[in-house]
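#struct-pred

JT: dropping the chains for the assembly here, can someone run the whole complex?
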Amino acid sequence: MALSGPIICPVCGKKAKTGSAIDCARHMFGTGDQPHRKWVDAQVAGQGLSFIDLLIEQATTPGNRSYVLLGEIIQKDAEKREAQKKESEKK
Amino acid sequence: MNKYTVINPHEPFRVLNTHVHNVDGWAKVTGRATYTFDVKLPGMLYGKILRSPHPHAKIKNIDFSKAMELDGVKAVVTGKDTLGVKQGIWRRYKDLCDEAILPVDKVRYIGEPVAAVAAVTEEIAERAIDLIEVDYEVLPAVFEPLDAIKKDAPEIHEGFERNINVTRHIEWGDVDEGFEEADYIREDWFRCGGQAHMCMETRCAVSSYTPDKKLTIYHSNQSPYYMQGLMAGVLGMREGDIRVIGPYTGGGFGGKFELDGAIFCSTILSMKCYRPVKIVFTREEDFIATKRRTPMFYYSRTGVKKDGTFCAREAKVFTNGGAYTGMGATALYLTGFFHSFPYVWKGYRYDGYRVYTNTLPSTSMRGFGAPQAMWCSEQQIEWIAADLGLDPIEMRRKNAHQEGTILPGQATIASCGIDQCFDEIKKWIKSKGKLRANRSIGISACGFMSGGIFNWFDTPYSFSSAVVTINQDGTVELHVGAQDIGQGSNTTMAIICAETLGVKVEDIKVHSGDTDHCPPDLGAWGSRQTLMTGNATKMAAEDAKKQLLEFAYAQSGLNIVYDLDIKDRWVHAVARPERGYDFGELVKKALRGKDGQKIVGRGYYTPHRKGMISPAYSYMLQGVEVEVDEETGKITLVDSMTAHDCGQPINHLGLIGQLEGAFSMAAGYGYLEYMPYEDGKLMNPNLVDYKMIRAPEMPPANIAEIDTYEPEGPYGAKEAGEGLTNPTAAAIGNALFHRFGVQMKECPIRPEMVVNALKEKAQKK
Amino acid sequence: MERQLIRLNVNNQDYEIYINPKTLLVEAIRDHIGLTGTKRGCDTVSCGVCTVIVDNMAVKGCSVLAVQTEGKKILTVEGLEVDGKLQPIQKAFLDEGAFQCGFCTSGMLMSATAFLKESKKPTEKQIRDGIEGNICRCTGYNSIVRAIDAVAKGKYTEDK
Amino acid sequence: MISDFTYLRPGSAKEALQMLSKHQEDGKIICGGQSLLIIMRQGLVTPEYMIDIKRLDELSYIRFDQKKGLRIGATTTHRAIEKSALIKDKYPVLVEMEEKLASIQVRNWGTIGGNLAHADAAGDPAPVLTAMGGSVKVASASGERVIPLDEFYTDLFETAMNHDEMIVEVMVPPRPPKSGTKYQKFNLLDSDQGIVAVAATITLNGRTCKDARIVLGNAATITMRAKEAEKVLIGAALSDAVFEKAGEAAAAECQPVADIHASEEYRRHLIKILAKRMAKAAWEQAKISG
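RK: done, full complex below.
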């Protein structure tokens, strides 16, 4: 589903450059402070991964896998939030 | 010896860019100049620092009772005598304030201070140090970034998972699309060594804390204002109660604008015994316990079209941060930014990771991450040109920045003379004719910033300020916070002030290096002072000049359509130069009109709307002729030419000196200056085993100065002297590539590496 | 350890100092006589910032015992200028900008002075070898070589 | 920090030797002190009595006669040797070596005796003098003896001298006809000690090599002769192939240690190259020499 607005960082509320999920992912890696790490850790723990794992993957192997992966996660999360928002508005 | 030519020179000035002696020259050639190293105060004690022999260990207990019993010992301090504040120059980011200098809990590198002693003589202090007993619990240590990020690596700082200290991401354009458009993609892995600042004056300080709770510090540094702010932070004092004096400074090169053991320990000792305490580092301490240029591991992937058009580049970098952050975070950002320089990319992406290790912390050093970036970039570009059979100079030219080039979200290039640099280097290569069989030429391009825009120090002050006061006899007092560490900023500011006010350099007295008497200024780093303090100085001089001319108008009763100006101490109507007044005479009169108040001009500068990095960028291209002994691998530099764009030159002698000096340091980084560690221990902490260029090794450093005009700089000036630390290592590598076809991926290039590379190549055949 | 009284002649002035015999010449000059123009930059006789002239020979003050120079004529940077008048080499350093931070300058000037005394019409290579024992981290040496060359070529003879 | 000592200044060599025999290992001779003061600062040497022979002019001389050859007094400075017209004429290689020994300041104050006694395997004079068949005259209160330089060094910083002995003279035999000596060190900076160094003497008999000496600096814990390389050369009709072989022999027999400046393997490689080059250079000179 399409989002109504640009993607906002779920941790610090910063609007990524283009408002796209992948840019938000880049913002998260670029910042890389504890709050951002913790958020990512929580999201990818299920896949036995961590923020740092994604970081090292991104840095030691050519290509862009970690960003894409995190971008998808952010996208899903944003959609979930929007859905929840709609729900609460209905009520 | 050296050739200096000027391409498209500007209109001549009265003072600017003329042959002006360094204003501190007299003091320096007669031995009168006193450095912190020479400061001696009444009742002064001498301090020595006990240093950790372990790369990583818990401090369980320190027993200094025996040391205190030694006759002549006045104080011993340990981390327990401090507030235990972990400080850092990135004050805005608590995570990055990680260095206590006198740690309470544990040590993280060999040479880290553990305790300090103050005694009536240096020798007694040294003996006392040996009497201190420290009980360590040695911890497992890690020394290389790629080991430190492994899952099972020892944790150096609590909460820093996998020892990752800082991460930086830079990206613009569409990288993936760019790579899709590329006909040819090349990937390379590089390794860049560290480098010691090796200031001739080792780190030293004299601190004096008095019962009125005021602190005065003489300190060999690059930014008295930073020292004042950082010391206030670690001591819990008010900045205003701390006076930092930076007398003549015996070199900095990026290594003297953070707190060091000398300033911190001498202060803690002085606060304990209320006497001045002097600490001077030995050369060995200066090597093992200050900071160094950041060693880096570089992965660079570059995509280009058949015709040599650059499409996209992505770089992944791990840097050896050593035990603490220091200025490492900035180096990590700048290396990523300048790895794109001086070229246009459809898409550019950089991921940098600074990793803690149990080694000497790394930090800023002349070039600030760019020498590493250029070592990799300029060699890879040379190889790509060869792979595609293209002219390496024309391929560079085709993709180079121009006036108006936009680096999305980062910078807009206002002035850029690199195109002419290509012409000059081509001319030089042509003029060399046929080279001897054992010689070859390598080239390398680069650009650099003119001061940083970032404010991680979180200062509420303008980045630079200046105050110009005109005395009744026409002499001028110029107060600036800029720090002259040898680069000649005092002279540069005097020139700008004299040119603007229309007086002579000898009329200007420059006051700098004292937080009690000079306005705050971020100091000497990132090539910022000429542009930033220069702008503030020019603004202050213009302010003072305006006040004087207002009075001159009233005096002369001239029709207001006439313009008044001042040149060579003569205040006159521009249209009728013969009509005017002597500068000094006029000032005397003007003071009466101001109820006796001096004419005071104020100026300040803080960059605005100039992107993320810097207000302006310098450009340069360098060619180096290299001789190699094929059998022994010994490298000799024979000749060099640098085409250089620094906007409008201001301090002629200073400019030449800075360019020659930067070249010698850059050449050293390329093939001599080497910092090998074994189990966290630096193996050559002395000037016998640490090799630097000496007079016989230094080749001619010819210069072609391309004069452009930088709208943001004073009189059109921008950076000079730091950027030239960047290209040389790659130029040497490229010379070897052209002669032997070998690709050197680790610097410095030591002779043994050359021999091995040649062997390898022979075996492949 | 017994101290001893020694007499040193520095810049044509006799000084009596009471020192430990292990005192190095540079320590005697800086700490006991109080002439701080001469610097110290290493502990391995490598950097040359402590260079002074003893009986017309450039030596490194960190590798000579003060007692060994008793009765000899010692010249330091402070002894170059006489009555406010600069030596040619000092003027040449100003004209060529042959210094930046200035910390190596005193030693560099002394090496240059001794070198110019004994080498007439030196080649560039000879000049470079003449200051081989002095490290300068700022200038890259070429401006210093130009300054020495200018003096050797007699550019400043009118001042002699 | 330099440890305290009692400073003694003998008025004559005789007096110096008496002091030395009195204090034995508690005494230490200082002359130029260019190396000694560095290791004292590092606390490696802590003499109780410092015997300063710097002023003993009776030991500062350069003499030559056709039969005995060259005689250099122990307190002669490097600079005096470098500047000696006599040595430049008779033993030019000594001047070439001195010109590259450290810096002018060090050569001005440092002495030949002190340098040889310091026994640094990377020292410059020892290989050259050894290649020319040189020896040192050492003296004690009880008399004098002559030790050939190729027997003088026993280990790193150790010599065949007893505690009560000191070097008083350096002796070099007259240069045989049709012979040449060359020296080169490999270093990164012009003024550095050699990462390795090679001195070679070739004496010709017609076209064949009558005698040869190859001496290696910093290729073992002591200055060493490459006797295998010498064997390759002696009696051979010299050619590039022979020099190549000699270089390989020298590389095989040296015992270099690895340090941060060069691995063991690279040092052997350098020895091979330098030995080859110096043997050839010495040969070229021998051919044109009287």
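JT: nice. Chain D touches chain C at residues 2-7, 9, 30, 33-34, 37-38, 41, 50, 52, 54-55, 79, 99, 102-106, 108-109, 190-191 (CB under 8 Å). Residues 220 and 256 of chain D are 5 Å apart (CA to CA).
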